[in-house]
Amino acid sequence: MSVDTRVDLSNGLENVPVFIERSSAVITFPEFQYSTDNIQGPGCTADPTEVTLPGCSCRSRSCCAENCTCLRTRGRAYDSAGALLTLGPADSGYCSPVFECNALCACSDACSNRVVQAGLRLRSEVYGTENKGWAVRTLEAIPRGTFVCEYAGEVIGLEEARRRQLAQSAEDNNYIIAVREHAGTGAVAETFVDPAAVGNVGRFLNHSCQPNLFMQPVRVHSLVPRLALFAGRNIDAQEELTFDYTGGYSNHLPVELLSTQRDADIRSSRSDGLQRKECHCGANNCVHFLPLDLSIINRE
């Protein structure tokens, strides 16, 4: 009988192990604290773990749109198998908000409106690459629309995000993701997540200009969103899992990055004093440099 001696990166915190490829030991592994959930960091005024959203009174195994206040108010986000119904941004360019049932809801844990909160369900492996550092591959096939993992870490404020970004050296990886959600009234809600010191398997996902995952903010117990990653297409076992660091999901170039590709040979790889890193995703539409969000440090 063979014994699997691979190391579980999550130390048993996830429902399924997150393996580390043993042959990748030659690459220095980053020191960080594994956490399955977001935690409150400097500058974050709301505790991501606090239950602040109202719940439904459904007593059934799974909620029905006809009777559930959650689904009637916020709409159904998943099908009966837990796959996301709307994949990627709508015609408006923005994703529709997703709200799940929460700790105050009377429905069971098997409710089809409890997907992201159920945690990791797919086996994956962190491995070393030749020119992209660490990466993540799936060990099983993933159907389109399936929840894959969260991008979990410290939820921090704008000033803390700016301080951390300015303190980075050219060799440092920037893990900070800034998510901006536009409300109908013109208001913009911002969430900054940094998994550098505290995070989960999502921190090892690489950027791709033609990704197979896309990021969708999902609210469960709190108004602080969870940054959930879903399969944008059917994904084969052993494929590397990637998402677009700009938050988009398309086979076309984002408009704001078109000039980066056209002028790649004549433009400097530095931007406002920050080193722009080369992109090695290998996609046909690769823009040659990793996305760099300067809005954090350029905010007035």
Describe this structure in words.
This protein is 7% helix and 23% strand. The protein is mainly beta and 300 residues long. Strands 3, 4, 9, 10 and 11 form a 5-stranded mixed sheet that branches. Strands 1-2-6-7 form a 4-stranded mixed sheet, with no helix packed on it. The chain is globular and about 55 Å long.
Task: Tag the structure with descriptive keywords.
mainly beta; 3 helices; globular; four-stranded mixed β-sheet; 7% helix
Helix content range of the residues, please?
A: under 10%
Shape descriptor reads: globular
Q: What is the C-alpha radius of gyration, as a whole number of Å?
A: 19 Å
According to DSSP, the number of beta strands is 17
Provide a compact summary of the structure:
With 300 residues, the protein is mostly beta strands. The protein has 3 helices and 17 strands. The protein has helices spanning 69-74, 158-166, 258-262; strands at 7-8, 18-20, 33-34, 39-40, 98-99, 124-128, 134-138, 147-150, 153-156, 177-182, 188-199, 206-207, 213-219, 226-231, 242-243, 270-271, 274-275.
